[in-house]
Amino acid sequence: MGSDTAVHDLVIARYEESLDWVLDVPDAYRVHIYDKGAGPTSTAVRERAETFVSLRNAGRESDTYLTHMLEYGPGTGEFTVFAQADPFEHSPDFLELLTRHADWSDVQALAWCWKEQIGYPPATLLTPERSIVPDLRVRPELFSLSTFQPLEWVDSGAEGIGRGYRQLHRLPEGVNMCAHFLDMCELPDVAELAEQHLVGRHSYGGIFAVRSHLVEKVPARALERLRQAAFGATVHGYFCERLWLHIFGEQFLFPLQLPGAE
């Protein structure tokens, strides 16, 4: 089971990925594995895990995270880290980052890219000076709350997700889709803040950390509504991924300047 010295929690959303790397997770972390596939798991990995739960394969990693929040609670650790079971594609320095929690913000992006080998984002944006953690690779992406597109490059996948969301909810071009989603999931205060801004910040792959007491601040009803959304249309899972940081208190960027406003 997890170490008695653990002071943080690590939540892993697994399908069929290898979990051997879990044995290298620092002892300061309680490990919670939620398995939606049929991949083999070694006895050593199971013994390292505080929690090992099988879930139905639906709702992407958003459902896994929300299941943990609703059924396990915020935990007693200082930070809760959420990650896919192969975090290294999006966060090549993931294990090292787990040792650097003293450098983290209350809500901390932990990813570097989507898929570096295919240029998502372009290599020109993945340079050392772009990292927000010294000597390690962490780069949150800025994106439009109305188009879902990143600000610095053209992401055809994000464009398709935004278009699909507008069509699903019959929204015209120019509507703040992220505010719409947050309001639909019964997070009115966060939705109002989103409506007043143009830009959000997200961490690829839904890999991030948050001070555990901030998890407790999100109403259970909102967590339920987010999980219902994740079980629904595919695009909803991507909206959860884009908005995790803000759900837990990350500030939106670029306030909307309306005519006549001071």
Protein described:
With 262 residues, the chain is α/β, with parallel strands linked by helices. It has 2 domains: 132 residues, Spore Coat Polysaccharide Biosynthesis Protein SpsA, Chain A, CATH 3.90.550.10; 94 residues, no CATH class. Helices cover 32% and strands 18% of the residues. It has 9 helices and 9 strands. A 6-stranded mixed sheet has the order 3-2-1-4-8-5. A 3-stranded antiparallel sheet has the order 6-7-9, with helices on one face. Strand 2, helix 1 and strand 3 form a beta-alpha-beta unit. Helix 2 runs antiparallel to helix 8. The mean pLDDT is 93.
Concise account of the structure shown:
The chain contains 9 helices and 9 strands.
Q: Evaluate the radius of gyration.
A: 18 Å
**What is the beta-strand fraction?**
15-25%
What is the CATH topology of the largest domain? Spore Coat Polysaccharide Biosynthesis Protein SpsA, Chain A
Total number of domains? 2
Identify the overall geometry: globular
CATH C-level class of the largest domain: Alpha Beta
CATH architectural type of the largest domain? Alpha-Beta Complex
CATH superfamily of the largest domain: Spore Coat Polysaccharide Biosynthesis Protein SpsA, Chain A
Major sheet details: 6 strands, mixed
Distance from N terminus to C terminus (CA atoms, Å) equals 57 Å
User: What's the number of helices?
Assistant: 9
Low-confidence stretches: none
The residue fraction in helices comes out at 25-40%
Count of individual beta strands: 9
Q: Helix and strand succession? A: EEHEHEHEEHHHEEHHHE
Q: Residue-averaged pLDDT, rounded?
A: 93
> What strand line-up does the widest sheet have?
3-2-1-4-8-5
The structure class reads alpha/beta
